[in-house]
């Protein structure tokens, strides 16, 4: 089962849009997409499932993009690990799981870590340091699709919603390698 973490430096980094692009680019995988937050969203339980497609919330966007399941997890660091482990047990192959979170990396080892970066200006989440240590690639918006190979792999995309053929091929290759 592939596990992907998409994080970012702060609000508005493009994390949700990138996750939706991943779901659309890899439709053969039955995705469970999970938004992890420590902010209270007035749900009765720490795990809430979205069932309606839409554009009003991140989880509704996941459903619109084709996620089989979309969850909102509201938990502080102490509560997060057991919740994540329970969710992973409920997602047997051929399912895949995508987390929108930096701090989820404290309680799981992901097959792929991507950093969404519409902009790294402004206030940066302290948890971004953890993502930066583990990220496999930085994904940024640019005028045209291209790849930057250097100390860190970088995908520069015209749109996070429609990933480049090069990035999709890289994703499939990486996920196949981790499955074997």
User: Could you name the ranges where pLDDT drops below 50 across 5 or more consecutive residues?
Assistant: none
Give helix % range. 25-40%
Total beta-strand segments: 9
The structural class is alpha/beta
Q: Tell me the β content.
A: 25-35%
Q: State the helix count.
A: 5
Question: What's the average pLDDT?
Answer: 89
Question: Largest beta sheet: what is the strand line-up?
Answer: 3-4-2-5-1-6-7-9-8
Q: According to CATH, what is the topology? A: Rossmann fold
Organism: Candidatus Sulfuritelmatomonas gaucii
Protein name: Molybdopterin-guanine dinucleotide biosynthesis protein B
InterPro entries: P-loop_NTPase (IPR027417)
Please tell me about this protein's structure.
The chain has 180 residues and is of the alpha/beta class. The protein has a single domain (3-178), classed as Rossmann fold (3-Layer(aba) Sandwich). 30% of the residues lie in helices and 27% in strands. The protein has a nine-stranded mixed β-sheet, with helices on both faces. Helix 1 runs parallel beside helix 2 (58-65). It is globular, with a radius of gyration of 15 Å. The termini are close together. The mean pLDDT is 89. This is Molybdopterin-guanine dinucleotide biosynthesis protein B. It comes from Candidatus Sulfuritelmatomonas gaucii.
């Amino acid at each position: 089962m592939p596990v992907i973490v998409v994080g970012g430096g702060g609000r508005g980094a493009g994390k949700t849009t990138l996750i939706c692009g991943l779901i659309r680019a890899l439709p053969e995988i039955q995705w469970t997409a999970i938004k992890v937050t420590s902010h209270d969203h007035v749900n009765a339980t720490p795990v809430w499932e979205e069932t309606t497609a839409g554009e009003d919330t991140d989880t509704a966007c996941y459903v619109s993009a084709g996620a089989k399941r979309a969850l909102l997890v509201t938990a502080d660091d102490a509560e997060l690990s057991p919740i994540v482990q329970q969710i992973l047990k409920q997602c047997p192959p051929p399912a895949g799981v995508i987390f929108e979170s930096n701090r989820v990396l404290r309680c799981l080892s992901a097959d792929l870590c991507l950093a969404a970066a519409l902009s790294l200006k402004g206030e940066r989440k302290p948890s971004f340091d953890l993502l930066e240590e583990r990220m496999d690639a930085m994904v940024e918006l640019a005028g045209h699709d291209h790849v930057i190979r250097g100390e860190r792999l970088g995908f520069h995309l015209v749109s996070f919603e429609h990933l480049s053929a090069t990035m999709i091929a890289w994703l499939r290759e990486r996920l196949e390698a981790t499955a074997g």
